[in-house]
Every structure is written in C-alpha cells, then in structure tokens.
Amino acid sequence: MPNASAPGGKVLISVLLGTFTVSLNNSALNLAVAELMAIFDASATEVSWVVTLFMITMGMTMPLTGYLADRFGRKRIYLLGLWGFLAGSALGAMAQSLAGIILARGLQGVAAGLMIPLSLSLIFSAYPGDRRGHASGIWGFAVMIAPAIGPSVGGLLLEVSHWRALFVMNMPFALLGLLCGYRYLSADPANQRRQFDLPGFALITLGMGAVLFSLSRVETLTDILRFQASFPLAGGLLALVIFVRVEQRVRSPLLDLSLFSHPRYRLSVILTCLQSIILFGCILLVPLWMQNALGFSPLTTGLTFLATALAAAYCSPVAGRLIDRYPPQWCIGAGLVITMASLLGLATLTEATPVWMIGAWMGLRGLGLGCAYLPSTTVGMRDLPEPHVAQASAMNNMARRLVSSLGIVALSIYYDTAMQAALRQGMSYTEASAGALHPAFLALAVIAVLCLPLAWRLGRTVTAPPEPALTTAPPRRLE
C-alpha cells in the first residue's frame, strides 16, 4: 500500500536526488583521469584507483544494506549513506594529494553501497504494486540521464574551472536530497532483535572485494594468469561459495538466499545479469573501435553514448507504464529484439561507416535498454513484501556487478587475443580491430536472443497464480 505519511511523488523526488547525484558524479569523474595524472605526476594505474576503489567499496557494502535497514530502518540508513556521500565529496574537494582523492572515493563508494539498494525499496514502499513499474521507470529516467550528461558537465567544469569542481557539484544535490529525505521519507519500525551475521559478513566482504579487485586489474590473458590476479580471484570465489553454504545454516542470515527459490525473482536476476554483460560489453567495445582503431576524439565517442542514454531515459518511464498495464514479457521481449538488432548493426561496422550511423545504432540500443533492462528488475521485485525488497535489490546489484565484471574480462581477453593474432598475420590495426569486434558484437547479440525465452517465462510468472507469500521469520537452523 502507498505510504500515507509520505506521498509517492515526494518520496520519489527525494530518492531521485540522491541516486542522480551518485550517477552524475561517477560519469563526470572519468574525464578527470588525464588531468589527475598530470597534476600529481601519477601513472594511469595509480589514478585508476579513483574509479576502482569506489566500485570495490560499493560492492563490499551492499550486502549490509538488508541487515542495516531492518535493524535501524531504511530512512535512517539511506540518509546516512547520503551524508556519507556528501562527506566524501567535501573530502575530495579539499584533497591535497592523489591519496586523499582515492580515500574520498572509497568513502563515496561505501555511501553508494548503502543508497543504491535502498532506492527501489523506498520507492516501492510509497506505491502499490500496480504502479511500481511507472515509479521505477521515472527513477530509471534519472539513472539513465545522469551518465548521459555527466561527461558533458565534467568536461565543461574542467574547461572553465578545476578538478575540485567535480566534487563540489555533488554538494547542492546531496543537501537538497537530505532536506527532502528528512521531510518526506517515513521512518519504518526498527527490528531491535535482528542479529548480526558476522561470519557471513566476513565471507561476503572478502569474496566481493577480492573478486572485484582482481577483475579490475585484468585486461589480457597474461594478466589473469599472474599470481597477483589469479590468487585473489580464486580466493574470492572460494569465499563466496563458502558464504552460500554458511548462509543456509545460520538463524539470521546476512542475505536471505531463499529469495532465489521464487521463480519470478530468480528469473529477473538472471535476465538482468545477462543484459548487464551486453550493457558493459558495449561500453568496452565501442570506444575501442572509435578511438583506438579510427582515431575519433573522446567527445565524438561520448556523443554516441549520449544517444544511447537519451533514448534509454526516454523509454524508461514509458516501459514502466507498459509493464504496469500489460503482460511484461511483451515490453521486455520487444526491448531485447531491438537490442539484438542494434548489436547486429554494430557488428557490421567498417572503416567507412559514418559517425551518424554509429550513433543511430547506439540510439537504437538505448531504446532496447530502456524497454528491457530496468523493467526486468522491477517485475522481479515489485510484488515482494517490503521487508525483503532491500535485500533483493542488494543481491540483484551484487550479481550484476560480478557477472558484468566477468563478462568484461572475457571480452577484453578475447579482443586482445584476436587482435594479436590478426596483427601477426600482417593485417592493419583497423582491420585487426574490426575482425575482433565483429564476432564480439555477434556474441552479445546471441546473449540477447538467449534472454528472450527467459523474458517469456518471467512474464508467465506474472500471469500465473500468485506465488506463496514470503515470510519474514528467520529460517530454522539446520542440524
């Protein structure tokens, strides 16, 4: 039921301000890498920690959101995250060294790990089930549009000001989000009896941190075979396997893995994980083609991604309304077909392909993204009881990050191997790049095709008889 004390629209705006701030900051800061290297006389590897540490700390914090929200209340934890992001922005703006910036980004990652999983939970608490698609579609608009304008905003600030402005720009949005949050978000009762699962926390934190760290350092087959990458990767994966076993035996697990026993949620997670490979795969492959092979500027490359983000932002609210009114498999399926068509178009790129054509294919990809990506998550979680949404969102986000990281590593290794083989055969760099990219885009198109039956099955779970209601009681200890 809608939250009577906090009208849905005001709750939605309050949450949008926070998530918009996080997304805008991340995309804008990517442009500062070259400037930070020059200012602090640092290598690309050292400066890459500005991005890497944020991703690692966010992934390590997400598993805690379900416990913290239950133990202390969603409003309190979400606003704590927003305060943390504001503090991280202030520290970044005042930093006198690269280490200070990296530390600030680590704090921002912790804050984002608290905020992102709770965003949909807070929104869903303010809307009934038959309007949650529309609400999440509007939220998706902000999530899509922020990365689109981030590079432009970041480039403009770097042109007229200083890299510190990239941190300062977060502060007005964060302060406004705090004001709205304290006024419009309703406090829910805290479960003082909720116990903390220390073994589970240690295992999931170690596992997520080690895996994300190792994958962030891998670009070639040689990289992944090195001890510095292979050892933490193997250790992290082992910790995650042990975590799953431990969580099945504790009375109050950190993450309720029994949620995966419900077909609708399980299918939605699988579907979004596969689509995240396509999403981040294109983010990797298109710049390799446009900048490394054809020599286009970052600005031109950014404009092609702007087409994707604008199209996705436009479609997201429309798709949200459609999945509220009609069987969701039609909207999600149409999005996947459009995505497949755009990937097949990208697989035909040649040296003679004009920039506008690349932008058109990327815009078409944005239409597919808006119709299929976020709706898949919304359908899987919109009918869950409120106490489970924060954990469900956290597990969805963690699964997507792990799977997309593995997918990016696989594509990077394939691209590097195929490029080296083609260059040894005497091909030009552009020919070798095209020869490597075409099969990669076709492989992503195949993933889109594989998603179609999953989308159909997901839609069937909505039209089928209701699933058994989830209970909030802790699982029994297995002897």
Automatic annotation (TrEMBL):
It is found in: Cell membrane. The chain crosses the membrane at residues 50-68, 80-103, 109-127, 139-158, 164-184, 196-215, 227-246, 267-290, 302-323, 330-349, 355-374, 402-423, 435-456. The keyword Protease does not apply. It is a multi-pass membrane protein. Keywords: Cell membrane, Membrane, Transmembrane, Transmembrane helix, Transport. Residues 11-463 form the Major facilitator superfamily (MFS) profile domain. PANTHER family: MAJOR FACILITATOR SUPERFAMILY MULTIDRUG TRANSPORTER MFSC. NCBIfam families: efflux_EmrB. Belongs to the major facilitator superfamily. EmrB family. This is DHA2 family efflux MFS transporter permease subunit. It comes from Modicisalibacter zincidurans. The lineage of its organism: Bacteria, Pseudomonadati, Pseudomonadota, Gammaproteobacteria, Oceanospirillales.
